[in-house]
Structures are given as C-alpha cells and as structure tokens.
Amino acid sequence: MSNTTEQIRRTELGTGGPLVGIQGFGAMGISAAYGETDTAAARDTLEATVEAGVTLIDTADMYGAGANEEFLAPFVAAHRDEITLATKFGFEYRADDPSYRAIRNDPGYIRKAVEASLRRLGTDVIDLYYMHRRNPEVPLAESVGAMADLVREGKVKYLGLSEVTGAELREAHAVHPITALQTEWSVFSRDVERSAVGAAAELGVAFVPYSPLGRGFLTGAFADAHKDLSGGDFRQLLPRFTGDNARANAALLAPLHRIAAERGATTAQIALAWVQQRAEVHGLTVVPIPGTRKRARLLENAAATRITLTAGELALLEPIAGRVAGERYADMSLTSAAREM
Ligand SMILES: NC(=O)c1ccc[n+]([C@@H]2O[C@H](COP(=O)([O-])OP(=O)(O)OC[C@H]3O[C@@H](n4cnc5c(N)ncnc54)[C@H](OP(=O)(O)O)[C@@H]3O)[C@@H](O)[C@H]2O)c1
Fold it and tell me: Which residues form the domain of 296?
C-alpha cells in the first residue's frame, strides 16, 4: 500500500454538515497523554494533514490544559479556510493543579469555555464544538440550549457530543441538530454499537470514532506495555495496557497481522479500514480521527482510506472485541457505556 499525498475522498459530516476528508486528525497526543513530543515533527505532521486532504482537526480545551489549542493556533491561522476545526469543553481543569478534574455542562461554564478556546485557537469561530463528557446532573436541554445560543451568536458553526448514549443523542438532537457524535470505536472497542451508532445513523449524525487505533495498541506496538511505555504515558493507567491483559490482547492481533501481511499493508491501516467498513454496515458516515506526531504515519493512515476489506477478512476480525481483556478506561463512570448498563 503506497503512502502518497494524493488527497483522500470527502464526505458531508452529518446531514447538512461541512465537507471533510473521510479521515480526520486527532491532535491530543501532541500535548498530552502519550509522552514526549518532538514539536518540529508534530508541526510538520500538521502540515501533512491538509496536503493529504485530512481536514477535520480535533482538539479539546483540556488537552495539555489549553496547550494543545495554543499549539494549533499558527496552523489554524495559516489554513483557516482549508480545515474544519473541532474543539471541546466539559472537563474543567486547573493548570496549577493537575489532580483537579470536574465535569461541567452548565451554561455559565460553557460560555466562559468557548471564549477561552477561541482566544487560544486565535480564531473568531469554532467549526464544531463538542460537549466532551456528560454530567447527568445538568439537564441536557440546558447544555445543548446554551450551545445552540453560541451557534446563533456566530461563535460556533456546528454542535457535537462525546460519549453519550443513543437516548441522550436523540434528546439533544431534538433541542438543536447535532452534527457529530465522537466516542471510542475500533476493532477493540465496540460498546457504541449497542445504541449510539444506531441512533446516529437514524438521525443523520456523523460518527467520529476516537482512538480508532486503540490508542496505538492496534498498531502492534505494545506486546508488554509495562516495558514499552515511558513514565509520563497515560496508557500505563489503562487496564488494557497493563500486565497480563496487554500480553493477552497483543495475541488477539494475529488476524490483523495476517491480513496486513497478505495485503502489504500495516496493522494500523487494517484497523482504520475496519472502522470505515463497520460504519457502512450500520449505514452511517464515519470520520475517524487517528492521532500521530509523525508525517509518515499520517500518510500511512490516510492511505488506509483506499483499502476495502473482504467479507472473509471482516469475519476474521469480528470476534476480537468480545475477547479483549480489560476496560477502555480504569474508571468507566464517565463513559456512555456506563449509562447503558
Ligand atoms: N472525545 C474523547 O473523549 C477523546 C478521547 C481520546 C482521544 N480523543 C481524540 O481522538 C484522537 C485519536 O485518539 P488517540 O490519539 O487517543 O488514539 P489513536 O489514534 O487510536 O492512537 C494514537 C497512537 O497511535 C500511534 N500511531 C498513530 N498512527 C500510527 C501508525 N500508523 N503506526 C504506528 N503507530 C501509530 C501514535 O503515536 P505517534 O503520535 O508517536 O505517532 C499514538 O501513540 C485524539 O488525538 C483526540 O483528538 C478524544
């Protein structure tokens, strides 16, 4: 599989949404979660996104406590009309106290959060504004109502939600059209297929799968995460990456390795192709947002949009998710899956 800079195909991000490349880009790892970043290489990777037609650029206010949005600002200034810029609010953080964390969905907080994101990103409008996590103590109508006010005021163009159930998506969509739902979805993580995916398909909401490479696990890079991960890496806290689970989960990748070898592709590319095709089964638009800080990997991931897996290959991958050892977070209480039990 060649990794050319030929532009990837485009799609409408949800009914009436913006036109974006069918694969987007997750910027989180540049400033948070996955250890040290070579910032020059990360800037070069950002440039490669637009060259490859990867136009949906994803960040959040809490990634690096505002640092990720600030890092993106020069890129946003240089490419404002070529990209669809998505950011999120909801995790209240304090730069001087990394242990502090609260989920805030109240209108007063949303209003302050949007102004801070606009300032850090150096733009006067956010294309897609997500509620990052749901706080069930705040009525959804209040939060989405406040987000809809931002659309009317021209600060935001489209609305998104992250980690909500199918029922919550329907409730929110009745208040104001929701353009995109962003939740983890990959060969390893399929709890969204319980209710969220079906609701999104029915409502014409695009699905934006986050961590489509299983936070890197599906690239085959982690046989023994205890040894493979450095001190500051958030994945050390994730049950799937720890001890016996990591070793058992690495063994589950055998069909991905086999398909990749037969096609002259990488396991990352097979994992990304799986998400695109699984969405077709459900009849919905997906724009996965793999994250990388390396130009070559960005191009490798974009090239995966040209792979179509056969029915036989899909069947080989089908049983994997049901066998994964360990949850996708140590604390699942903030996920949509927790509210579906
Ligand atoms: N809404 C939410 O709650 C939420 C949660 C998590 C993430 N997200 C969003 O989703 C985006 C993507 O998720 P993610 O970054 O967690 O996980 P991911 O995209 O599944 O995997 C990222 C990891 O894979 C590595 N990688 C990427 N392409 C590769 C390739 N071709 N070969 C080998 N390794 C490769 C990256 O390393 P290098 O960087 O070193 O290449 C990084 O360690 C984030 O950036 C963020 O924007 C949203």
Answer: 10-219+268-308
Tell me how far apart the alpha carbons of residues 112 and 89 are, in angstroms, rounded to a whole number.
Answer: 10
Asked if residue 113 is part of any domain, the answer here is: yes
Q: Distance, CA 15 to ligand 1 centroid (Å)?
A: 26
Gap between the Cα atoms of 138 and 127, Å rounded = 24
Task: Write the DSSP assignment of 146-172 as a string of letters.
Answer: HHHHHHHTTSEEEEEEES--HHHHHHH
pTM for the whole structure: 0.96
> In the predicted model, what is the mean pLDDT of residues 149-161?
98
Q: Is residue 315 part of a domain?
A: no
What is the C-alpha separation between 201 and 284, in angstroms, rounded? 5
Q: What is the CATH number of the domain that holds 114?
A: 3.20.20.100
Strand duo 91-92 + 102-103: pairing = antiparallel
Looking at residue 83, its amino acid is I
340 in any annotated domain: no
pLDDT tens digit sequence for 176-191: 999 999 999 999 999 9
Paired sense of beta strands 10-12 and 19-21, if any: antiparallel
Q: At what angle do helices 166-175 and 196-203 cross, to 10 degrees?
A: 30
The phi, psi pair for 26, rounded to 5°, reads: -95, 120
In the structure, which protein residues have their CB atom closer than 6 angstroms to any atom of ligand 1? 26-29, 34, 58, 132, 162-163, 182, 210-216, 219, 221, 268, 289-294, 297, 300-301
Q: For residue 319, is it within any domain?
A: no
